[in-house]
Amino acid sequence: MSDIISTVLSFEAACVELSLEKPQYMANMFEREKENNVLRQQSNEEFQESMHLYLAGDHPQLTTARITDVECAILYKTLEYNQFVRSIDLRYNNITDQGCNALGKLLSTNKFIEELNVMCNDFGAEGAAALAKSLFNNTTLKVLRLNGNKIGNAGGMAFAQMLQINTTLKSLDIGDADLTIECLIALATVLRENNTLEALNVNRPLLWTVQEEPTDHFTRMIKVNKGLKELHMQKFNMRDFGACRFAENLMHNFTLTYLNLNCNRITRDGMKELAKVLKLNTGLKCLDLGYNRLEDDGAISLAEAIGTYNTTLECLNIVYNNIGPKGLCAIAEALNFNSALTSLYIWGNHFDDAVNMAFSTHLHSERLQEQNCDIGSYVVDGKVYLNQTGFLIRRHYYYAPIFGDDVPEWQIRGEQVRRADHTVPIVHHENDPLVLKS
């Protein structure tokens, strides 16, 4: 089964075997793919070797129903030996542990699926364990996203155990999943030896201590791990001690390119230590420090590293850090000496006329591109102001627009529904006194 026709036949056979009606959403998406295949043949385009099965539940233009455990069973029967579907998007649906068991069986038997997205569903530790167990022998899945499912400590432990065996998974997202200290330490310990995982998201764990033990274990892991390129640790209750520990160990790491420390409690002291890392020109290309408390002193330390030493950092996020005009002007000045930093996000800090003019100059000279920053400029009565735009880091990670020029390639574009014509016929009555008078 390596084309859309055989996939549709398998889908219909699965519904018959399970004595279920064809789910309309799945049927529509397969039909859409068939239509696209016909259009490609008519325009003599290359034959499509794979398909992205889009079944997200947050696309109101495509469906008002959500995928449930029943549809997961049909999906398992349909794709059990399928070679055409390479990625599945099931986010924002109503999949529970039972549905995850079916998806786990699918990953155990199918040898061609490379990406599975089940973020923001309704399964817990049992479902997570089923998915983790299926990856013990799976050698094809590269991306797994479970963000927003409450898998807890048991689910996190299952993935830590899986990473001891699996050597093909490249990206794992288990953020906002109620992870605890025990499974975080287990994950950090396993990643000392696992050098195949390239991206890890462990945002917003449930921590009952302020001693930063999980942060310390992750910083020690960073020192020896040579495979991880992307690490997300939002809402870790990280303070300056954790930032300093990161700085100490990042000096020995030249593979990590993206570090997300958003929504923590890092102040100027932690920023001064992180600035020392930037001065060494490590592999870090994207640093997210939004929603901390760097203030002017932290921003000045950051600006010094950017303007005089660093030539590798390409993206910086410092939104909502209580930075005043002095610190922001220092950042703007640093851009005059740094050509590597192309993406900058600064909204939520304190602007004045000097800040407005400095960044407006960078915008008009195209030193900062509109799509690479979160600010725009406008003039009222001869005075320059800055406004917030909608561009953010990882803008299309959790959601994506369905209309306009900003729809990414993987997102299904919505169809514009024509509005009904509400025309009211005008009838002139011969005996109408108003008509006769006119």
Key structural traits:
alpha/beta; globular; 438 residues; eleven-stranded parallel beta sheet; Leucine-rich repeat, LRR (right-handed beta-alpha superhelix); two-stranded antiparallel sheet
Short account of what is shown:
This protein has helices spanning 4-17, 24-42, 69-79, 97-109, 125-134, 152-163, 181-190, 213-224, 240-250, 268-279, 295-308, 325-334, 353-364, 433-437, and strands spanning 51-54, 85-89, 115-117, 143-145, 171-173, 199-201, 230-232, 258-260, 286-288, 315-317, 343-345, 375-380, 383-388. It is of the alpha/beta class and 438 residues long.
Description:
This is Leucine-rich repeat-containing protein 34 isoform X1. It comes from Aplysia californica. InterPro entries: Leu-rich_rpt (IPR001611), LRR-containing_regulator (IPR052201), LRR_dom_sf (IPR032675). Pfam families: LRR_6. Keywords: Repeat. The structure is a single chain. The chain has 14 helices and 13 strands. The chain has one domain (58-63, 83-397, 404-437): Ribonuclease Inhibitor (Leucine-rich repeat, LRR (right-handed beta-alpha superhelix), Alpha-Beta Horseshoe), CATH 3.80.10. Strand 6, helix 8 (213-224) and strand 7 (230-232) form a beta-alpha-beta unit. The model has no long low-confidence stretch (mean pLDDT 92). It is globular. It has an 11-stranded parallel β-sheet with strand order 1-2-3-4-5-6-7-8-9-10-11. Strands 12-13 form a two-stranded antiparallel ribbon. By secondary structure, it is α/β, with parallel strands linked by helices.
